[in-house]
Amino acid sequence: MRIARFSIDGNVAFGAVEGDPTVPDGLVLDIIKGIPFAEFELSGTKVPLSKVRLLPPVLPNKVVAIGRNYAEHAAELGNEVPTVPVAFFKPSTSVVGSGDPIVYPSFSNEVHHEAELAVVISRLCREVPRERVKDVILGYTCANDVTARDAQRAEGQWARAKGFDSACPLGPWIETDLDPSDLAITATVNGELRQAGRTSQMVRSIEDLIVHITEAMTLLPGDVILTGTPAGVGPLNVGDEVAVSIEGIGTLTNKVIKRG
């Protein structure tokens, strides 16, 4: 099932995405009674996807991101693959949805795209054993770990470089029925292919990451884990349109604008 979060007539709801994307207004949302983090029913009330505004598919309490989880990406920035996963946070205020703008930060002159598979957590969990990891995953979505690369280099830690407002686009929806082990992941800028990799290239698997993260902290329903980016990261400029596509999920599209 594909679960979207959306706004219509000032109201926010979740809906199951249904239909044929190849025909005009072919995709519709069957509005969900309740929330996807508990038992829910489909209402049978349907609205065309074209008539709503897609929102970030979740509003996470926290986004836990993993750095240098693809060997070729680590190498392209002159880094070694770390001996243990490198985790950092992106604040909830950095999250935007598909179609929302990425606002170029005033403190940077070198902003990069980073296409990533995102994992959405379904329930409160801590110290998750490997054999139970699937039980705490609601599904998967596309992410762009937008990074002010010059600030990342200069400041040594990544809070501002990766946590500025609009630095974490997520969407367009959550896919709950998916094997994430070998999916194509790409990023284009203005239609030009920049990144092309597969999730099978991850140094550490999703199971590895969730076990590692939950050894230290409790994850809450709706929290998001970013699993790293393949090689090919590169600059974004004001006016660019960046699209992250993941096989079996869809495409997350955002335009870069100047801070007003």
From TrEMBL:
Gene Ontology molecular-function annotations:
hydrolase activity
Cited SUPFAM superfamilies = FAH
User: Pfam families under this entry?
Assistant: FAA_hydrolase, Rv2993c-like_N
Q: Where does the Fumarylacetoacetase-like C-terminal domain start and stop, copy by copy? A: 62-256
Alphabetical keyword list = Hydrolase, Metal-binding
Keyword ATP-binding appears in the UniProt entry: no
- Enzyme Commission designation: 3.7.-.-
Q: Which residues form the Rv2993c-like N-terminal domain?
A: 1-57
The record's InterPro entries line, in alphabetical order, gives:
Fumarylacetoacetase-like_C, Fumarylacetoacetase_C_sf, Rv2993c-like_N
Is Metal-binding there in the keyword field?
Answer: yes
Protein name in UniProt: Fumarylacetoacetate hydrolase family protein
Q: Which organism is it from?
A: Streptomyces fildesensis
Q: What is the lineage of its organism?
A: Bacteria, Bacillati, Actinomycetota, Actinomycetes, Kitasatosporales
